[in-house]
Design brief:
Length: 362
């Protein structure tokens, strides 16, 4: 198989990760941090493209990388509505959708496709996104909620979840497309996804299920509404309670599992209680999502940064091991997952989709 030369671009809210791959080998990688003051100059997210592009071009220049030498540029997928898992060529319509909030939610990962296209277009090379946050194949029945004006769209850690599911299947000597795998991504936010024969047929997003190191998760609805209208907190402060300063951080003032475990070892009973509750909530999330397989689930994969905590994983497994085999793959491999997806698309092992605008919700 040809060793495709790929530039990988993974933008985050305060950083841009860039890497050069030759085949599966990473040749060089950098993570460039962006200060709040730097990003505050840009009113809208797409306005950041020239700023971040200049940093990417500087990375390429410093490392002797020319756009002509690349086979493709792969960007992190954004929060685009109406797409399925896998890869999409960044055509003109997708570029519009990544910038237009009628077709996407504003998120730093939206810049991945825009930046990939900007680099690739200069040399007439293809640009792709892969396993975007909103990509899934949810059936209509999974999109209904108890509030008619709100419908569910899948939002989970697709990129790392699919990569770990594929890796687990390979380690078991099987094909991902032949298995039913439930993946729980356990990071600053926690999400879970049900992978049925290569398709994500349902998911629980990082604001919909368990609390996490930094997210509040699902909380009693009436109490949340009352808190929003209590006058005690601004809209911005409430959003921080939901994402960023919720979960274990809200209770313990830290989201670092290592620090929490040290406090437990030193006799902190409240930290121990919150940690136990974290394990229980993860297990309940897995149990809830497992029913979509109707008893035909091959295994459960636990991944993400807090999967490094052996004590937390032990508690979670005590709850869920009766459902099926549990495999732990700590950490996240987003850059590798983007590169591997690019290789599969370019080699023809995996197809690539062309984006078209979905019908707008009325």
């Amino acid at each position: 198989m040809k060793n495709y030369r790929l530039l990988i671009i993974n933008p985050g809210s305060t950083s841009t990760k860039i890497a050069l791959y030759e085949g599966a080998q990473k040749l060089v990688q950098e993570s460039i941090s962006h200060s709040t003051d730097e990003l505050a100059r840009y009113e809208n997210l797409p306005d950041q493209v020239p700023y971040r592009l200049a940093l990417i071009e500087d990375f390429m220049k410093r490392n002797g990388i020319t756009a002509d030498s690349l086979d493709a540029v792969i960007g992190r997928g954004g929060l685009v509505y109406g797409i399925k898992t896998g890869g999409y060529r960044v055509n003109d319509k997708l570029a519009v959708a990544l910038s237009d909030h009628r077709y996407s939610s504003p998120h730093a990962s939206n810049l991945g496709g825009l930046l990939a296209k900007a680099v690739a277009d200069k040399a007439g090379k293809p640009a792709f996104i892969y396993d975007a946050v909103t990509s899934a194949e949810l059936p209509p029945v999974a999109k209904i909620t108890g509030i008619k004006e709100i419908h569910r769209e899948s939002q989970c850690h697709v990129l790392n979840s699919r990569a770990m599911a594929i890796r687990c299947a390979k380690d078991l000597g099987k094909r991902y497309e032949d298995m039913n795998i439930l993946v729980a991504h356990l990071g600053g936010g926690i999400s879970a996804s049900a992978h049925e024969h290569g398709h994500i047929i349902d998911s629980i997003g990082d604001c919909d299920g368990p609390f996490s190191p930094e997210r509040a998760g699902a909380v009693p609805g009436l109490e949340l509404v009352e808190l929003c209208y209590s006058g005690r907190f601004t809209e911005s402060e409430m959003k921080k309670k939901v994402r960023g300063k919720g979960g274990m951080y809200a209770h313990l003032g830290t989201s670092d599992c290592r620090e929490i475990e040290a406090r437990i070892a030193a006799g902190d009973k409240y930290a121990e209680l919150v940690f136990q509750a974290q394990a229980l909530q993860i297990a309940k999330c897995v149990g809830e999502l497992s029913v979509v397989f109707k008893g035909k689930m091959d295994c459960i994969v636990l991944t993400g940064g807090i999967a490094y905590s052996e004590s937390l994983m032990s508690m979670v497994k005590d709850y869920i091991s009766f459902l099926g085999p549990v495999y732990v793959y700590p950490g996240e491999l987003e850059m590798e997952a983007l590169a591997e997806g690019g290789i599969r698309m370019l080699s023809g092992e995996e197809g690539c989709s062309e984006y078209d605008f979905p019908k707008l919700q009325q």
